[in-house]
Design goal:
The protein is of the alpha/beta class. Helix content is 32%, strand content 24%. It has helices spanning 8-14, 21-39, 88-95, 145-150, 160-176, 193-205, 223-236, 249-252, and strands at residues 45-55, 65-73, 77-82, 103-111, 117-123, 129-132, 211-215, 241-245, 258-263, 267-270. The strands form two sheets. Strands 6-7-8-3-9-10 form a six-stranded mixed sheet.
């Protein structure tokens, strides 16, 4: 049995994953570049910016989303609520890069110490977004926890430095979501509902996304698991930017920095939670 608190060297022996040299080099550069800019003199903080986004499915005449605009500062917690069918999940899919807006823009805006935006902005890259859909445990495919976490990683030849980087991120993600006490060779389907949800979060957190998107993160959980996930999200918002779609407004209210209502017809407006 392999514990998730194993030393890095043991993790490297246990894992059999590989990354291509091109991905390895590019990812290393992007990671260090972002961290340098984040703490540098010229950049004080960044925001997710969504500007006038519309979405019309191919072959249709009706927009699902209409001129959606909002801003969410890094390491904060945003919540979108509204009736089913109003376009909330569609917006999340656009942010995750699963679909492209018909018009409008989605990007990361950097701000200086004076609070003014820098001249340049960066597109929100799909590989820098983690998304956890409702009931993510239904899509587990591996026989053990470790293989589930690394299932989507490229397996071509790559350098030891990138392996170490991802192994450290794996260890950190497991600790962040509170899976440090379980075995890495445990069957994911044998976990409790709350721990399955934690595993789904760990999968998305390994590569430290610029944005973590959650669709109904409390759905289907009992009261204790719901309370545990809320506590976990309170911790995670200190590490990453989180955007949630949920009907569970009361339980998440203490975490929310900004909230928006999605109305039927796909329009979004900022509004305090109706508690």
């Amino acid at each position: 049995m392999v514990s998730s608190s194993l030393a890095l060297s043991s993790l490297l022996q246990w894992t059999n994953f590989e990354l291509s040299r091109s991905i390895s080099n590019e990812s290393r550069f992007r990671f260090h570049f972002r961290r340098t800019r984040a703490v540098g003199v010229s950049c004080h903080y960044s925001c997710l910016e969504v500007k006038d986004v519309c979405y019309r499915p191919p072959g249709t005449q009706l927009n699902i989303l209409n001129r959606v605009s909002f801003s969410l500062r890094e390491k904060s917690f945003g919540l979108i609520f509204g009736k089913s069918g109003s376009g909330k999940t569609t917006l999340l899919q656009l942010l995750a890069g699963l679909s492209k807006p018909t018009s409008g823009s989605i990007y990361i805006q950097k701000y200086g110490n004076d609070g003014r935006p820098n001249e340049s902005s960066e597109p929100l890259l799909a590989e820098r977004v983690g998304i956890v859909f409702q009931f993510p445990e239904r899509y587990f495919v591996a026989d053990n926890v470790l293989d589930e976490v690394i299932f989507g990683w490229p397996r071509q030849s790559g350098g030891l430095q990138m392996k170490e980087y991802l192994a450290l991120n794996l260890q950190r993600a497991i600790n962040w979501v509170g899976l440090g006490g379980i075995s890495l060779d445990k069957d994911p389907h044998s976990l409790s509902g709350g721990y399955k949800r934690r595993l789904a979060l760990a999968i998305q957190l390994v590569q430290i996304p610029d944005l973590l998107i959650l669709d109904e993160p409390l759905a289907g959980l009992d009261w204790k698991a719901r309370a545990d996930i809320v506590k976990l999200l309170k911790h995670l918002k200190k590490e990453v930017t989180i955007l949630v779609v949920s009907h569970d407004l009361t339980e998440l209210a203490t975490l929310v920095d900004r909230s928006w209502r999605m109305d039927m017809g796909g329009t979004l407006r900022e509004e305090p939670l109706p508690l």
